[in-house]
Structure formats: C-alpha cells, structure tokens
Amino acid sequence: xxxxxxxxxxxxxxxxxxxxxxxxxxxxxxxxxxxxxxxxxxxxxxxxxxxxxxxxxxxxxxxxxxxxxxxxxxxxxxxxxxxxxxxxxxxxxxxxxxxxxxxxxxxxxxxxxxxxxxxxxxxxxxxxxxxxxxxxxxxxxxxxxxxxxxxxxxxxxxxxxxxxxxxxxxxxxxxxxxxxxxxxxxxxxxxxxxxxxxxxxxxxxxxxxxxxxxxxxxxxxxxxxxxxxxxxxxxxxxxxxxxxxxxxxxxxxxxxxxxxxxxxxxxxxxxxxxxxxxxxxxxxxxxxxxxxxxxxxxxxxxxxxxxxxxxxxxxxxxxxxxxxxxxxxxxxxxxxxxxxxxxxxxxxxxxxxxxxxxxxxxxxxxxxxxxxxxxxxxxxx
Length: 381
Prior knowledge:
By secondary structure, this protein is of the alpha/beta class. The chain is built from 13 helices and nine strands.
C-alpha cells in the first residue's frame, strides 16, 4: 500500500544554454511590468545582473537592481532591500545569483507582501497573505534555493540563520542557464557543489522523506557524485557543469519535500560562531554524521555507493560512504578538520546546544542529543 504523503512539485524549470535570454518573456508571462532584481556585488561585477536587466528591458519590463547584501543576507539587508522595493513598486522579484541572492529576494517578498519583521516568518507556512510572483536565475550550482520555498536569513544581531518558508514564497519559474555558472571561482564551485551533495545525502534518509523525495534525492546524487569531480578537475566541462546544476535543483526540491539532518544542524553554529563558510561546514560535518547514521541507514547508503560503482554491504556502507565523502573534500581542496580551518579550540558544548536546537536536527534518521553532537564536534577536531 502506498504510504500517505504530500508532494510539492516546485517551480517551472526552464533549462538550457542561453536561457537567460528568455527572462523578459517569462517575466511577461507572469504579468510583470516592473521587476526588482536581487544580485550580490560579485554577480553585478560579473555582468550577470546587467544581462538580466537587458533581457527584461527587451521584453518591455522595467528593472532595477538591489545589491546591498553579502554571502549571508541579514535581516538588516532584507529591510534595506524592502525599503528600495517600496520605492520602486515592483510587480515581480527576480533572484539572480547564488543562494544569497535568491534568499534575499524571498526575504524581501515576505516583508513587502506581508509586512512586519523577518523574525515573524521563521518556520514553515508563515506568510500572512498573497505574495508577489518571483523568478529565480541561479548562477551557482549548489544551494538549491531556486526549488525551495525557504529563505535563509541571518539575524543581524545574533548571527543565527533563520529558515523562513511558505509555499507562496517559492519561485514560480527558475531559469537554469549553465553558462552563468562558468564565472564561478573554482572555490565557489567546490563549496556549493559539496553543499548540494550534502542535500542529496541528508534528504534521502530524513525521517520526513517520501517515495517522491527519495526519487529526487537519488537522481540528485547520481548527477552530483558522478559529475562534481569532473567540474573540480576541469572547470570548463560544460556537460558536467550542467549535470551538477540540475542535480543541485533536484536536491533542493528533495529538501522542500523531506528536509535535512544533523550535518546541516552542526554546520550552522560553525558559521555563526566561527565564520566557517556554509559549504565547508556541511562538508566537514557530513562524513561524521554518515558514520553516526550508518547503523540505521545501511541499505540507503549502500544504494548511493552502488550508484557510483562501489559495492558495499549495508553494515559497512556508512563507513565506506563517509570515506568517499572525505575524499571528495580533499579533491575539492576543502578542510577536513577544524584544525585545518585554523580553529584550534572551540566550545563544543555551546556549539552542540545551538546545533540541537536547529530545526534540521529533528529530521535526522537517528535521534541526536546535545551530547551526540558535542561528540561529533570533537571528532571534527
């Protein structure tokens, strides 16, 4: 008998080389005449925001760009973007860039459409009314924000990331133009790609996973695990980059339907307390969490290994998958320990107390306590 579950199908995906050129026509399909683009300064410098403005203008859509935010958009950044939006009066929001650009667009949408403060929208299903249509154009391949309804916004005072989500905040359309990913620095490609691998692995075994989300997690893993090493070896491998970009989108949709686990719970306090970049923090935590979950997730982990040509018995699959993930970190040039990040000492119990309070911790297939998480931080030393 098919188990009872819900499935959120996500945005319309427009995939292919050069599809950024369709931005204006797609915006018009959504009824837009004025669009606010959110793009961080790096995306502006790369010329992508200007290309987006030109594509919109060619279809008769007036556009402006908000770029006043960085890698982790804060509540203050979102408030500044909302103030700009109120002056410009857009009827469409476009998140053009990496996860921060797309998260910022969603955050602005919450405040512009529903009022209040970003803190009011922490959690799922928190919008209080209709929201503006929005469109995503990812320029990185990793966060999967283009296929999720959540905005990750950092509290400007505490440094803690808040997950603010509602189906009405999801992008209506996402353009996956692989050429936009070619301007990523190699380190950004590595960080975002490792993050996407974490999404596939954790969403597969989440306690909220469903038959539909597992299908997405598996396909995301196949695309990512087979092609991310190719991207790391040759940044101009367009076929591999396209596969990683699509894998990241599928992984994001898997998260939307299944959530994550303890690796992401461990990662966020490292970012808040020590400034560790998100993809690095996830990559560091993931092998340790896979080892922890191995006893409960052996068959699922063995299936992932089989997808990349490695035969493993379920009882040993956790260790083998963790070793593969650790090797991936090395290939990506990322640190494999806290010491390697220059963190000689850290307050493990305090980090663990923050990690156990993270929403994603509750979806880990093996229940975790603050003590379990403190032991994992110690293992990362």
